[in-house]
Structures are given as C-alpha cells and as structure tokens.
Amino acid sequence: MKTVYDIFVRAYAIATKEKKERKRASRKNDGPKWPQHALVFDTETRITADQSLTFGVYRLCELVEDRYRVTQEGIFYADDLPATDRGVLAAYQQTAISDVPSFPPEFPLYSRTEFMRRVFWPAIKRDGALVCGLNLPFDLSRLALPGAKATKTNGRSRCHSIRTEPRTRTFPTFSFSL
User: Tell me: the pLDDT tens digits for 147-175?
Assistant: First the structure.
C-alpha cells in the first residue's frame, strides 16, 4: 500500500523591477490622457412640465500644456423662443465681457439649430472634442430634435429621427483617481 503525504507550501513572492518598468512603459505609449479639445455647455429650461429649452451657454476649450483654455464662448437659444426673450439675450450679449481675448470682442448668439451646425457637430466630428456638462444626459436631451419616434429593441430604447443630423449614443462612464 502506498502512503500519500500532503505537502503544504507557503510562498512569498517579490515583484521584480522589470515588470514595474514594463507596465509604466506601456502607459506612456497609450497616448494623451485628455482630448485636445473640449466643449462645455449647460442649458436652462422652462419650469413647465416638459422643461423645454430656453437658452444655453457654451465654451470651446483647447488643451494647452496641462490645462484647458477657452477659445470661444457664447449663448444659444431655443428655435421657438419668443422675440421678447431673444431680446433679453441679445441685450446681455451686447454687454457681456468674454473671457476670450479678441478684438473686436466675440460673444455669439445662436439659435439651437445654428449652435448644433456651427459649434456642436464640428467640435465633435472635426476636433474629437470631449463633451462636458454638469447633467449631461439632461442637457443633451434639451438639444434633441422634436418629433423622433422611440422604439424598443433588445431591451434598450433607441431613438430614430428622420432628420439629417448624425445619430448619437450616450454611454455612462465613471472615472476614479486613487
């Protein structure tokens, strides 16, 4: 009869410096941590149940060294905003002091459609800009076109539009620094 003996081994492994160096080297090759451009915007809405867009403000920024610097800023308003409300925004536009040094001072006032065509889509498509907002899903929904038909597919809601603007998808991401 054979006797079987159990052997228990406890090991203490020490990481070599070579592995740490390889990991650090791979991080350096991943490319820049932040995109070269950023679009930061916020929208304001009515206090009615539909919370329709009244106006919004935006800033286009460019990464210089390790900070984003403002290259353009302005205001946009709902396409159906009444003339009296547009007048208030136009009066503010005339007196606003821009943080972008330029002569003459530029502080554009766009309709929602103009903002999407002149600022939003070019920033994303041409510049690959990071889009930022405090409540970004809500703010993006205020920029969405009316009349889209929602359908249910694979447990996800998908919005189809007959408009010619590009379709977008929003994905939540989380970033933590320890």
Answer: 545 555 544 444 444 344 555 555 444 44
Coil, strand or helix: which one is 48?
coil
Say what the alpha-carbon torsion angle 29, 33, 36, 42 is, to the nearest 10 degrees. 160
Answer whether 55's CB lies under 8 Å from 75's CB. Answer: yes
| Angle ∠(71,33,98) on CA atoms, nearest 5 | 15
Cα 136 off chain centre by: 7
Rounded CA gap, 102 and 71, in Å? 10
Q: 159 has which bridge partners?
A: 150
Query: What letter represents residue 67's amino acid?
Result: R
Model confidence pLDDT, tens digit, residues 15-63: 776 655 555 555 555 666 888 999 999 999 999 888 889 999 999 999 9
Token digits of residue 150? 């929602």
pTM above 0.85, yes or no: no
Residues 6+ apart with CB under 8 A from 73: 57, 58, 59, 60, 98, 99, 100, 107
How far, in Å, CA of 176 to CA of 118, rounded?
Answer: 33
Residue 123 dihedral angles phi and psi, to the nearest 5°: -65, -40
Q: How many CB atoms lie within 10 A of CB 43?
A: 22
